[in-house]
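cache lookup: miss for this entity combination. No prior model stored, computing from scratch. Input as submitted by user K.M.:
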Amino acid sequence: MSEYTIAVLAGDGIGPEVMAEAEKVLNAVEQRFGISIKRNAYPVGGYAIDNHGEALPATTLLGCEQSDAILFGSIGGPKWDTLPLEQRPERAALLTLRSHFDLFSNLRPAKIYPGLEALSPLRADIAASGVDVLVVRELTSGIYFGQPKGREGEGEDTVAFDTMRYTQAEIRRIAHSAFKAAQYRRKKVSSVDKANVLVCSRLWREVTEEVAQEYPDVELEHIYIDNATMQLIKDPAQFDVMLCSNLFGDIISDECAMLTGSMGLLASASMNGEGFGLYEPAGGSAPDIAGQGIANPVAQILSASMMLRFSLGQAAAADAIDAAVVQTLADGVLTGELLDTANRHKAATTAQVGDAIVQRI
Amino acid sequence: MSEYTIAVLAGDGIGPEVMAEAEKVLNAVEQRFGISIKRNAYPVGGYAIDNHGEALPATTLLGCEQSDAILFGSIGGPKWDTLPLEQRPERAALLTLRSHFDLFSNLRPAKIYPGLEALSPLRADIAASGVDVLVVRELTSGIYFGQPKGREGEGEDTVAFDTMRYTQAEIRRIAHSAFKAAQYRRKKVSSVDKANVLVCSRLWREVTEEVAQEYPDVELEHIYIDNATMQLIKDPAQFDVMLCSNLFGDIISDECAMLTGSMGLLASASMNGEGFGLYEPAGGSAPDIAGQGIANPVAQILSASMMLRFSLGQAAAADAIDAAVVQTLADGVLTGELLDTANRHKAATTAQVGDAIVQRI
Ligand SMILES: CC(C)[C@H](C(=O)O)[C@@H](O)C(=O)O
Ligand SMILES: CC(C)[C@H](C(=O)O)[C@@H](O)C(=O)O
């Protein structure tokens, strides 16, 4: 029997309640596929600040190091927004985990599920043509981590600075992630940059062109970030894989998520070169609806599916979860935010959606 | 009689043909408002490269220096895309002009005109709630111009870097532009940043908060760039003035333009502290449709209106142009890209739209 150990970091807000549903789903695939996934829960985020004095306690980090993957919930909330930036949940926990485990390859799929076209904020004819994009975002370099970063001087002369910085090796490895992913999709990579202004983008173009030679079956195009932002709205169906630097990927992936109109259905993977990864929902901790049992657990459940696929090598189990999710949505078992006002009384609870997915596995 | 001198830089692609219509409109307001606007045409962009060896010849720059304002067309095209970056039209002409004249304050209004809601790529109910945003973009600092910027090393160790850099003084003056503009609008400033990651953004927040004290009638909110990109699509009506750094303003202003679905109707102003400015359409040189007499001249005509308002102090003339444009659109005198396929045979030519606006002044 294949045995795995994962670190479960549920975090704040709706994190714990949607994680409970993902655990039900993991139980179901353990049974059906004869695998064992040992789960150790660790504190993270605001909860960890309140109970252990910091957003990423040493025991949590150690627990992650001893695991095959991290299943992450969501962190943060107004309660911790007044802390100094370095101590806040997002930065102290999420950015530190990305950097510590060298999770450079961030995959953020965004698609409109069949039957849910009306949720898209796009005009009906554009939504009907489809959104099915995979954003491949570089996650451990660029302006997020480049040095120097700081401030100097006094009064009006105070100057702040951040450094966008990329090495050829950093660009090369994320480009490979994008081309590999495209080979399993519609075989097109749109590399997003600002090569008319940024030197980093020019190196990005050069390296991407070079890597493209190794994937003759995949088409490569370059697009400026400002134009990409527009084209996504006008004609999202033109995009398959979008390859982005850290900052541009932050922007583009959120735009793609919004275009689907169903953020609660989107998961993401952040992986290093050894198959280790952190898997988390695209949405935030949503403190306003936490504890009411109405949050959508699908993104968390699909995070578990991505984990099975990419870190645990259990593609069949991942396929089963994905199919069960599609079926559950098609059967109309939906949380309230996916329903229009007239049908909101038919909303399923967080647990009902989780149970429906388990039944279909 | 008030007399002014302006530099007319028509540029490439559709630039010259839409500029011809803007000149007709300037003739009309000269007559009606008893002002004189002397116009000197200078080469710029790809045209200047072909004929004078560089995108911004010294005579052009000198001509601009001797003028009250620059009326700019559009530049660039595939023909010049293979030149080294520094010599290309966008960089060598546009970025140099911005920097040379310290045109730090870039105003980019985007709105859906009455009757043209169906052009918006947004879902009908969202488009109906309206888009009417003024992006105030810092234009002469940030990662566009920050030093150091370059590359070093060899092979896989090659590293490229760009510096995002802002002084308190630079942030303060653009914040004032935004708050002043908001006082004449719906009195709300949404300052776009990435303060959870960038030190520049933290200084940006501090200074913006400080400046806000001087405008107690204007509401200030801070929003992360990733969230702003999403909220604009979900609920654009929540935004009035969006205050952005150079890079974020590039992205957000193009997103706003696309949300209206009518880029050919949008103009922009780039001004310094002395009232001098460069005025240009939001769209590009559109080489694919150049010379056919089908390009929309409205953005160029509204650029002339902004010039009259902001650099020449002729608000009444600007109001007359704006009203004539609204009337022309309402009367259905529209270029082809504003019409659906069924009505495209009713398309007016570039010159017909220009003439219709002149008639209504
Ligand atoms: C919380 C924040 C630092 C983070 C980022 O910018 O990467 C988030 O927006 C994301 O996209 O995961
Ligand atoms: C052409 C390019 C350098 C320019 C910019 O990025 O500022 C353009 O996109 C704009 O928005 O005016």
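stored under new cache key. Chain A touches chain B through 61 residues (CB under 8 Å).
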